[in-house]
Amino acid sequence: MPPPAATNLGYTPPDGGWGWAIVASAFISIGFSYAFPKSLTIYFKEIQEYFSVSYSEIAWVSSVMLASMYAGGPLSSILVNRYGSRPVVMVGGVMVCAAMVLASFGTTIIHLYLCVGVIGGLGLAFNLQPALTIVGSYFQVKRPLANGLAMTGSPVVLCTLAPLNQFLFDSFGWRGSFLILGSIVLNCCVAGSLMRPVNKNVQPKPKAELPECNGGEEAATADIAAQADNHLAEENQNESNSQSCIHKFVDVSLFRHRGFLIYLAGNVVMFFGFFAPVVFMAPYAKHLGIDEYSAALLLSIFALTDMFIRPTTGFIGNTKLVRPRIQYFFSFAVSYNGICHLLCPLATGYVGLAIYAVFFGLGFGMVSALLFEVLMDLVGAHRFSSAVGLVTIIECGPVLLGPPLSGALVDMFGDYKYMYYACGVFMLVPGIFFFIMHYYNYKKLDEEQRQSVAVKMKTSEEAVQLQMSQNDKIAHETNG
Fold it and tell me: Which residues cross the membrane (predicted)?
């Protein structure tokens, strides 16, 4: 990506120090945000029988929760810009706790939609977006690694909650389990308390110390980056005087950003098939006659694989070879997920499902570790808060409809293989789309960069010639 996208912060991030405490708190906050809706699938079969509902209807519980989490992105973004990450995350933890307590007294499936889905999902939005934003404010050079470590919270929490939920259900039933889960999620308040705002009163580094976001091209474009920084500062000043309050918090100009539109278009299709395979993994195993604890163990296998691949992905993404073209890495991860889902119906026994869980965990972990890093790489850290808010509100549609549509396929055919075929197509198509469009985007960026360098050199030559002519004129007047 162009240097301006990576350096327009107005300060030098510490890239360490208290930033690692921020990564730990984001680890907890992000972990509960993503793992909570997945872990609740352990209770789906029993809740389905209790309320006498279909696969499609029970899938709406996780679906509404995830959709509310994504739909709450813009509101969370506004609150973070106004109050900071710390209070927003703490309020989110309290909201999820209250949602689970209220859901434990539910008498209809609609009650669970409202409590677990709407209130709990909005609380998770207040945990997710602030954690993503504050990591980007503390890291620049080591940002892919920091994001990878923070995103590892999801599989770690899921790996813990999957067997714990089965134990809680056997001991207390689903109502008692919801009460206990409500108290456990209050750990998000502890994580939020660690999210101290970054100290922005730091002198910027010299141009020669700019991070190598574009490899060898960085040195040739350092001056352009500095000019772009100054230009951005002027633009921000003008916007603050002319734009409304809403436009300050939600940067609608992103819809004219080529890379952002590519990311958004691919993700809208991708999310139709992103979460459904996880939501239906345990029910699928039970459908094949596998016992409840072994079915729950599949989620743990998936989560363990996911847990190790996320920091590994962050480490690989931070290397000089991959980071300048990290969008290709993301494209591969999305395509790989699609292939895994297309091959899943070939796994008939428990061993086959366990192998699928491993390969799926690898793909899911790679996509999750890169999902927000590639967005920040496209738009820059200074616009990330607005970008992630816009992305999540638009993605809430496919996130909401994906699992219920997949559940409808199960209800229609009485078999899970068609659901996995559909999810495979929904992942493979955007993966190929990303490869093609990012090749085009990188090519256009290289052309624009060469043009900028040419303009800079031409301007410098004209300035030198003008200075020489002025010197000659002064010398001529002096001699005359």
Answer: 18-37, 58-79, 91-124, 176-195, 260-281, 293-309, 329-348, 354-375, 387-406, 418-440
Q: What is the mean pLDDT of residues 216-234?
A: 42
Q: Which of 334, 261, 5 is nearest to 143 (CA)?
A: 5
Three-class secondary structure of residue 12 per DSSP: coil
Q: Using DSSP, state whether 212 is helix, strand or coil.
A: coil
Q: Is it the case that residue 246 has pLDDT exceeding 70?
A: no
- Which class does domain 15-195+245-451 fall in? mainly alpha
**Which of 129-143, 213-227, 382-396 ranks highest by mean pLDDT?**
129-143
Q: Decide: helix, strand or coil at residue 37.
A: helix
How far is Cα 409 from Cα 276, in angstroms, rounded to an integer? 11
Is residue 104 within 8 A of residue 159, CB to CB? The reply is: no
Beta-carbon contacts of 112 under 8 Å, excluding residues fewer than 6 positions away, are 47, 61, 103, 106
How is residue 445 written in tokens? 């960026």
Phi, psi (rounded to 5 degrees) for 197: -60, 145
Comparison of pLDDT for 398 and 1, the residue scoring more: 398
Structure tokens, 90: 């703490």
Location of structure tokens 């929904």: 426
CA 322 and chain centroid, separation: 19
- Distance between CA atoms of 416 and 295, rounded to whole angstroms? 15
Q: How many CA within 13 A on the CB side of residue 140?
A: 24
Task: Give dist(CA 364, CA 367) in Å, integer.
Answer: 5
Please identify which residue in the block is written with the tokens 């404010």: 137
pLDDT in tens, 156-166: 887 788 778 88
pLDDT at 324 over 60: yes
| 253 exposure class (CB count in 10 Å sphere: 0-12, 13-18, 19+) | middle
pLDDT band at 426 (very low <50, low <70, confident <90, very high): very high
Residue-wise DSSP of 150-161 = HHTHHHHHHHHH
The secondary structure element, H or E, covering residue 377 is helix 350-379
Quote the pLDDT of residue 479: 64
Tell me the Cα Rg of the chain: 25
The encoded tokens of residue 426 equal 């929904």
Domain ranges in the chain are 15-195+245-451
Helix/strand/coil percent split, the chain, to 5: 85, 0, 15
